[in-house]
Design goal:
Elements (H helix, E strand, L loop, with lengths): L8 H13 L6 H17 L1 H12 L3 H27 L2 E3 L10 E3 L6 E5 L7 H12 L3 E5 L5 H14 L5 E3 L4 H10 L5 E6 L1 H12 L5 E5 L4 E4 L5 H13 L11 E4 L4 H16 L16 H10 L4 E4 L3 E2 L4 E2 L3 E3 L9
Parallel strand pairs: 3-4, 3-6, 4-5, 6-7, 8-9
Antiparallel strand pairs: 1-2, 10-13, 11-12
Helix pairs in contact: 2-4, 2-6, 3-4, 3-6, 4-5, 9-10
Length: 339
C-alpha cells in the first residue's frame, strides 16, 4: 500500500480529468492491457476476496466464486472478445434529405465516471461496471459499500496496486458523508449506482445539479408465477436457487410466488425438497453452503416479517451468525410490509 495519504476528492477527480483529456485511455491497446491487468490482479487476490466477503457476511467460498469473482472473469473475457468491434466505426444509412452526406456512428469515451457499489454483491457489482468503464475508455472513481468493510479494503488494495490514481481510484467512507460533496462539487461524465430506490433517487437529485448522466440499477419486487402447465420440478428447483442464493439478498430474487391452486400442493412439496437438497437439514450451521444476513438491522427487519403470515417451512434464526432459514410464508396480506 502507498504510504502517502489519499488526496482530496477534488484533486483526485481533477487529476483524472487531466489524464482523460490527454487521451491516454482512448487507444485499443491501452484498454485491452488494462482489462488484462484487472483480471490478473483479481486472480492474485482471489483468496483474499473470498476471505473478505466471508468476513463481511459469511458468504461461502464457492458461492463467492460463482456470483462474484467467476462472474467478473466472464465479464472481462466478454469485453476482451468484443472490444475491437465495440470501438469500430459503424456506417449507417443517411436520410435522403441530407444527401450527399454520409452518416456514421462513432463510439467515444465519456470521461470521468463514478461507480457506486452495493453491499449485497460488494465485489462483482462494483467491478463489473468498472470493466465497462475501462472498455469504453473512461477513468473511474470507485465507491465501495461501507457495510462490507473487509471487501472494500481488498478492492482498494487491488486498485491501488494495479492502476495509477489519475486513472482509477477508490474512495472510502459512509455514503451519506462522502457522496454529497463528491457529486455536487464535481461534474462526473457518468455516474453508475447500484442499490435501493430511495438512495438512487437521492443520487439522481444530486447528479442533476451538475447535469451528470446517471445509470440507476435499483431493487424491486420480483414475483414468480407458476401456472397449471408448469413443469413443477423445474420451477421449484429454479425458484429455490434464485431465491436463496446469497440468502435472498439479490435485487432480482423472487420475493413472492403466485401459484395456480391446482398445483399449489405439489409445488410447495417440490420447493421444500429443493431447499433441503441445496442447504441441508440445518442451514443455520451450513458454513459451506448458506450465507448470512448483512447486518443486525437487516436481520431484525427480516425477523419481523415472520409474523406477517403463516410459517409453513423454516422460520428459525441465529442471532450470532445472522442467519435465517429459508422460509415459506402463506396467508400474507398484499398490504403487509413483507410485500
Amino acid at each position: 500500500m502507498p504510504d502517502n495519504p489519499m488526496p482530496s476528492y477534488e484533486l483526485v477527480c481533477n487529476a483524472q480529468r487531466t489524464f482523460f483529456g490527454a487521451g491516454h485511455t482512448f487507444p485499443y491497446a491501452f484498454r485491452k492491457a488494462q482489462l488484462k491487468n484487472l483480471k490478473r490482479a483479481v486472480k492474485e487476490y482471489e483468496a483474499d476476496i473470498e476471505k473478505a466477503i466471508f468476513a463481511d457476511f459469511g458468504k461461502p467460498y464457492m458461492e463467492t466464486y460463482v456470483t462474484e469473482t467467476g462472474f467478473l472473469y466472464a465479464e472481462i473475457d466478454a469485453a476482451l472478445d468484443n472490444l475491437k468491434s465495440w470501438m469500430r466505426t459503424e456506417r449507417v444509412q443517411t436520410p435522403l434529405v441530407l444527401w450527399p452526406s454520409q452518416s456514421k456512428i462513432i463510439s467515444q469515451p465519456k470521461g470521468v465516471t463514478l461507480i457506486i457499489g452495493p453491499w449485497n454483491y460488494p465485489f462483482q457489482l462494483l467491478l463489473a461496471p468498472l470493466v465497462a468503464a475501462i472498455a469504453a475508455g473512461n477513468t473511474a472513481v470507485l465507491k465501495p459499500s461501507e457495510l462490507t468493510p473487509h471487501t472494500a479494503q481488498v478492492v482498494e488494495d487491488i486498485i491501488s496496486q494495479t492502476f495509477d490514481r489519475e486513472y482509477i481510484t477508490v474512495i472510502q467512507g459512509a455514503g451519506t458523508e462522502v457522496l454529497p460533496p463528491l457529486i455536487t462539487n464535481f461534474r462526473f461524465d457518468h455516474i453508475f449506482f447500484t442499490g435501493s430506490v430511495p438512495v438512487g433517487r437521492k443520487i439522481a437529485e444530486m447528479a442533476a445539479s451538475q447535469l451528470s448522466p446517471v445509470t440507476l440499477e435499483l431493487g424491486g419486487k420480483s414475483p414468480g408465477i407458476v401456472d397449471a402447465s408448469a413443469d413443477i420440478a423445474v420451477a421449484a428447483r429454479r425458484i429455490a436457487f434464485g431465491k436463496w442464493i446469497n440468502a435472498g439478498q439479490t435485487c432480482v430474487a423472487p420475493d413472492y410466488i403466485l401459484v395456480h391452486r391446482s398445483v399449489e400442493k405439489a409445488f410447495m412439496e417440490a420447493l421444500k425438497k429443493n431447499i433441503n437438497a441445496f442447504y441441508g437439514p440445518d442451514p443455520l450451521t451450513n458454513d459451506e453452503g448458506y450465507t448470512g444476513i448483512i447486518n443486525k438491522k437487516r436481520f431484525e427487519t427480516l425477523k419481523s416479517y415472520l409474523k406477517q403470515g403463516t410459517v409453513i417451512f423454516g422460520g428459525k434464526t441465529d442471532e450470532d451468525t445472522l442467519r435465517m432459514e429459508p422460509t415459506l410464508l402463506t396467508d400474507v396480506h398484499l398490504d403487509s410490509p413483507v410485500m
